[in-house]
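Quiz preparation item.
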């Protein structure tokens, strides 16, 4: 297992360009299965989860051509369906969360889709009911092998229908959309997730010949078509990475410019950081963060303590709450962090408490943070990254801390952050990767 050694307490300075969005590209890569024609995808981040999914597509028979560092061409004209029932697939498919989204396209185009229980962050229960209830509504037969934890859906033909999702699941919505685009008739999906990830998927599918209306809302109308063609798609900048860079800047009291962030797709993110007292300037499509010695958390109008909580889009994304929490440890004031979606994502605060942060974990979903206004620096320590966002939050804490910290299990960070140590070094951070 690799580790990072971080000498904290240094000011950073410079410009960072965000990578392509992990959670968008995982959907986009699965969508290449919907057509035998060539699909070009640009701004593909070079991260573990994406590379694993590209590997699985290759094993499935998809022709993969790397056009440049972050661009690929895919052609799914000869698919090896027996791979889906092989031991190799049972191992490979379970190694990330995003692999679940191959099921919808495979079901739609080949009449069957299988998946072992997918991996991803261990951040609480992560059920798949929404996905499979959607496929069943479209007419698929569902089977689940409990011993092998292996899911399957089969159908000779899918038929459009009206459905109300039990929750606005992001990957569930993507999966059902990809099944419905090739179904016979019209499907409406109400309580659909509508993150920019889903909007981008719908734009790509429409460019391939699909008929999806209501993009950006929680009510999608999909008129099934007989087949889809190729297209070229460019992935948006990763809004979670952008939020992470904001965290790096303010915790190290540094000036930083984040280039080409696609402001129009950031939703609540800038507002939430501003409520923490952070100055963010919109300069064209960049975010400029000036050096800030202090940032003061705003109270509500009635004087009560601010709560930052997650909610399905256009609410605030749960993937940035750990970063907001770490930023709050050095703010002036108090904030309640309420992680509603996942029940095991806040336990990493123990590490921050070890480093001297004033945090009360009220229960698995809520933590109160009493900011120290940079009056007392965090202390360096040795820690292990439990999940991708806790990992980057601990890394941010270490960059601001007094002394040298070690973070183990950094594969969690590599799942979602491209070449993070080189990019941090480019703005002046003292960080080394240590391979065992
Ligand atoms: C590969 C990928 O894209 N992963 C993202 C995706 O995961 P994923 O698609 O797996 O997450 P879901 O949207 O299905 O749900 C996440 C969790 O939130 C709960 N839930 C969901 C919707 C809702 O309205 N109410 C509710 O409580 C679910 O029960 C579940 O525990 O979306 C999550 C929620 O934004 C993000 O954290 C993940 O980074
Ligand atoms: C939870 C996340 O990822 P995954 O769904 O891939 O585990 C995340 O990106 O924060």
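Solution:
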């Amino acid at each position: 297992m690799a580790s990072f050694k971080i000498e904290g307490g240094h000011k950073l300075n410079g410009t960072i360009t965000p990578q392509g969005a992990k959670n968008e590209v995982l959907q986009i890569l699965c969508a290449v299965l919907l057509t035998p024609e060539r699909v070009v995808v640009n701004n593909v981040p070079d991260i573990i989860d994406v590379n694993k999914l590209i590997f699985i597509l290759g094993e499935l028979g998809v022709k993969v051509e790397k056009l440049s560092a972050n661009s690929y061409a895919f052609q799914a004209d000869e698919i090896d369906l027996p791979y889906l029932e092989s031991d190799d697939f049972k191992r490979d498919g379970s190694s990330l969360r995003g692999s679940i989204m191959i099921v919808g396209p495979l079901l739609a185009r080949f009449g069957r889709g299988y998946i072992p229980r997918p991996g991803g962050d261990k951040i609480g229960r992560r059920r798949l009911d929404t996905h499979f209830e959607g496929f069943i509504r479209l007419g698929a037969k569902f089977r689940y092998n409990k011993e092998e934890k292996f899911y399957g859906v089969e159908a000779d033909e899918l038929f459009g229908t009206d459905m109300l999702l039990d929750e606005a699941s992001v990957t569930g919505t993507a999966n059902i959309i990809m099944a419905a685009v090739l179904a016979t008739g019209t499907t409406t999906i109400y309580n659909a997730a509508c993150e920019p990830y889903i909007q981008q998927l719908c734009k790509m599918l429409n460019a391939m010949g699909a008929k999806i209306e209501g993009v950006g809302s929680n009510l999608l109308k999909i008129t099934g078509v007989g087949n889809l063609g190729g297209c070229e798609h460019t992935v948006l900048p990763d809004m979670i990475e952008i939020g992470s860079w904001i965290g790096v800047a303010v915790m190290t009291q540094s000036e930083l410019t984040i280039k080409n962030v696609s402001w129009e797709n950031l939703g609540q993110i800038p507002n939430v950081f501003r409520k923490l007292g952070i100055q963010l300037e919109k300069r064209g499509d960049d975010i400029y963060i000036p050096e800030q010695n202090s940032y003061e958390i705003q109270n509500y109008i009635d004087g009560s303590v601010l709560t930052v909580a997650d909610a399905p889009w256009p609410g605030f994304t749960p993937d940035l709450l750990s970063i907001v929490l770490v930023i709050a440890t050095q703010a002036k004031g108090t904030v309640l962090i309420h992680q509603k979606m996942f029940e095991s994502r806040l336990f990493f605060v123990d590490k921050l408490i070890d480093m001297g942060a004033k945090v009360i974990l009220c229960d698995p979903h809520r933590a109160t943070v009493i900011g120290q206004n940079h009056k007392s620096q965090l202390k360096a320590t040795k820690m292990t990254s439990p999940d991708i966002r806790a990992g980057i939050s601990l890394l941010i804490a270490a960059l601001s801390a007094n002394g040298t910290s070690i973070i183990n299990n950094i594969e969690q960070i590599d799942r979602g952050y491209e070449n993070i140590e080189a990019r941090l070094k480019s703005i002046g951070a003292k960080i080394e990767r240590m391979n065992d």
